[in-house]
Amino acid sequence: MAASAARATSTVHARSPHHPSSTVLAGARVVLPTGTVEGGRLVVEGTKIVKDAPADAAVHDLSGHWVVPGFVDIHNHGGGGASFTSGTAEDVLRGVMTHRRHGTTTLVASTVTGDMDFLAHRAGFLSELVEQGDLAGIHFEGPFISPCRKGAHSEELLRDPDPAEVRKLIDAARGTARMVTLATELPGGIDSVRMLAEHGVIAAVGHTDATYEQTREAIDAGATVATHLFNAMPALGHRAPGPIAALLEDERVTVELINDGTHLHPAALELAFRSAGAGRVAFITDAMDAAGFGDGRYQLGPLEVEVKDGVARLVEGDSIAGSTLTLDTAFKRAVTVDRIPVEEVVAAISANPAKLLGVHDKVGSLEAGKDADLVVLDADFTLRGVMRHGEWVVRPRTG
């Protein structure tokens, strides 16, 4: 854990949006970009974090708790029984609120493989929710992926990443497309990466059967993210290192990790952190409808999924079909099971994905002038409170 910053310089103030006075959150361990501050202070004024609190500011005692930035999820297919690929606006918002109650204050909606016309129509639909501020963007996972590593995607709907077709989807998103996952070794893959980079859209290598050399070529062309590293790609080999080695070694790449205890062995998680460094890791959920909802049968695009004991698998084929993870669970597991320092977990779950999305000037860290998005955790790292834009989504009960 990083050394605590001097208390005299650690106060970050914020105020609640619909109240005349500022609200000071006092007494907690506050994780700032400069380190963890014991007995720190945060003041919420309106929707923002500010530097100074007036004398009449209300004080909320959070002694014995942690205050960390709101979580940022760049890869999420749904939750609360709702799918971002097929649900109504009400369904999508229910999924967003499910994850928001678990600390995710900034969320990118991910789609799954489908018919191109349907996906283009869906992009236009989701873009309206981005424009309203409910979503932070759209991520297309499929259909431009390898049939050899399709995971929970419908093989008959897969296609090569022709740049014109990839462009069709990002145009349909009306400026809200944030990321496209590609098997860059397929015909058109490298040209699509270049096109995405030119348009300011993240090209992510994933669901790929690429070699080490092919992955290096994709990175040089502009790919900057590894979609759920280790999953849906060739294993690391000593003679054929494949995409994993190329993605881990390159400073230009951020690697997504699903820390649910199912997708990754703890040793694989540690390998990623040690190889890439905490500044190049982004925790994601890859959540599907069942997140925050429960076991049962669900649809993931055209495929049927059964969730049992919190693990989602295809009914036909038994492949893992996304996760039921929420980021508060990923945070707690990272600290208590994987023994990753809190500051590194905060980077992976907030700051790094915010930087990837280009919204680090607004979210991802607790600093004056940024949105008052934060999560309150107890001493055992269980979520106790969530604030978004200065309003409590989950109000902490501290006695």
What structural keywords apply?
alpha/beta; TIM Barrel; 22 strands; globular; disordered N terminus
Structural account:
There is one protein chain. By secondary structure, the protein is α/β, with parallel strands linked by helices. The chain has two domains: 7-69 and 365-394, Roll (Urease, subunit C, domain 1); 71-357, Metal-dependent hydrolases (TIM Barrel). 26% of the residues lie in helices and 27% in strands. The chain is built from nine helices and 22 strands. The chain has helices spanning 89-100, 116-131, 163-172, 189-198, 212-221, 242-249, 266-276, 327-336, 342-357, and strands spanning 12-16, 23-32, 35-45, 48-50, 58-61, 66-69, 71-76, 78-79, 82-83, 104-111, 138-141, 177-182, 202-205, 225-226, 254-258, 281-284, 296-300, 303-308, 311-314, 374-377, 383-388, 391-394. The strands form four sheets. Strands 1, 2, 3, 4, 5, 6, 20, 21 and 22 form a nine-stranded mixed sheet that branches. Strands 7-10-11-12-13-14-15-16 form an eight-stranded parallel sheet. The protein is globular, with a radius of gyration of 21 Å. The model is unreliable at 1-20 (pLDDT under 50).
Topology:
Layout lengths: L11 E5 L6 E10 L2 E11 L2 E3 L7 E4 L4 E4 L1 E6 L1 E2 L2 E2 L5 H12 L3 E8 L4 H16 L6 E4 L21 H10 L4 E6 L6 H10 L3 E4 L6 H10 L3 E2 L15 H8 L4 E5 L7 H11 L4 E4 L11 E5 L2 E6 L2 E4 L12 H10 L5 H16 L16 E4 L5 E6 L2 E4 L5
Parallel strand pairs: 1-3, 2-5, 2-6, 7-10, 10-11, 11-12, 12-13, 13-14, 14-15, 15-16
Antiparallel strand pairs: 1-4, 2-3, 3-4, 6-20, 8-9, 17-18, 18-19, 20-21, 21-22
Helix pairs in contact: 2-3, 3-4, 5-6, 8-9
